[in-house]
Amino acid sequence: MAWWRREKQPTATTLSVSDPVLAEWFGVGPANYSGVNVGEFSALGLSAVYRAGSIISGTIAGLPLRTLREVDGTRTRVSSFLDNPGGPDGPTPFEWRETVLWHLLLHGNAYLLHVYNGAGSLAALVPIHPLCVTPEWAPKRPGGKLFRATLDDGMVRDFDASTMTQIMSASLDGLRGLSVISIARNGLGTAIAGDRAAAKMFSSGALHAGMVSAEEDVSEEDANVIKESLNAKMTGWENAGEIVVVNRKLKFTPWTMSLEDAQFMQSRAFQVEEIARWFGVPPHLLMQTDKQTSWGTGVAEQNRGLARFTLAPWTSRIEARLSRLLPAPRFAEFDYAGLLQPAPEQEIPLLIQQVEAGVMTVNEYRRIRGMDPIEGGDALRGQTAPASTPEGVLA
Known about the structure:
395 residues; alpha+beta; three-stranded antiparallel β-sheet; 12 helices; 11 strands; 36% helix; disordered N terminus
């Protein structure tokens, strides 16, 4: 995005040096304990951050986004632009939902530009990168907002609620959501510094570290030659296991420091737990399996816990905002049925009980199990129907 062109546009305004958006553009931000600048791509460079974000965004993107219509307590699925929110030439529905989630997870805001068709109906929503949008309170409109966005063509344009929708994470002022990159800057900065320290350790030759002393007098020039020769043969991963031959009487005194004593590995493992805590993802899903998880013993229980405490708040935010764009009594809702589906050995007996109790039909059962309907299978059984079932009708 051509953010530097803002001052050339007639609608541009002066940005405050305290604006977090400006800090993000320059890759700097508030000071943190590690002294490492934390930005979008440096945070994603941490495998735990990328994995946690991928789990949340990918899982929610895989959930069907339904448009429902409720009248007199009866829900009916209907079609709407949300069936393909990116438009015919834009991203697929999965890609669209994934992009929106990444914007929310990292920046705390997702901005969706409205696209209308020739009939004046909303046809698509285009995600705009959060760093390209500055929200402001609309004058003389309590609670209303204006959005100043820099688009791909370099032009700065103003939008309101009729032309742009904002989805926020948790917010302290109602204007913009909290960015995990900002509020977790200390923890992420420490993790990035740990990655850099590990890389430096290998690239600088941590396999060989110590002091070399000559047993004979050498000039400063000779000492530099010896040092360069040793560095060329002993440092770097490509020289691991090499036999070094030096035509000098030298004494090498290694400097060794136990990684256990330095608690280096423990601190890096703790950083994974910290990132898991920030994103609300259990550590075992980030491949951190050193400790016993308390999320239950079955996959179904783990999925329920993840869906209830981590995924549901995100989907609820999206549902609420998208529902405002639909004419009443329509609303948007994510379908969790596939994600929360129990194991077959648990699901089949429950479904059979519902068929026998007259709660669902045989064909409804077969549809859930991915089987073709049968003739006469659309009638509900009475509450006193016999428990016996013709062979092959259900299973």
